[in-house]
Amino acid sequence: CLSDWSSDVCSSDLHYNYAVVQINTGNLADAEEHLQKAMKLTPRAGHLYYALAALLSLRRDVEGALQSLKQAIDFDSRNRLLARSDHDFHTLYEDPRFADLVYPERD
Questions:
Q1: Which residues contact 94 (CB under 8 A, 6 or more apart)?
Q2: What is the distance between the alpha carbons of residues 47 and 78, in angstroms, rounded to a whole number?
Q3: What is the pLDDT of residues 29-44, one digit of tens each?
Q4: By the 8 A CB rule, do 35 and 48 touch?
Q5: Are 53 and 82 in contact (CB under 8 A)?
Q6: What is the pLDDT of residues 58-106, one digit of tens each?
Q7: Are the C-beta atoms of residues 46 and 79 closer than 8 Å to each other?
Q8: Which of 47, 53, 78, 98 could be a cystine partner for 68, CB 3.0 to 4.6 Å?
């Protein structure tokens, strides 16, 4: 699988782990490609939407990041707590919609 990413043997987790490494090294296009592949294999996995939200935030795609973060939280509410202190979301810190997503108790 590592030599042929098109193989059906590649798992969602393998694509996800590879994507996280690519995000951390700044290879956002490659990371997004592998996150999309992982999402096709496991479409309701909150951690995949969370990683995509972080990637989109790093890319300064505010709308996409907020949408993906909302989906991540909908699938797993623990993502709300993670996002509160994740520096990958620094581009969203000033957006009131981000605060609404990660601090709903403030309403």
A1: none
A2: 10
A3: 999 999 999 999 999 9
A4: yes
A5: no
A6: 999 999 999 999 999 999 999 999 999 999 999 999 999 999 999 998 7
A7: yes
A8: 53
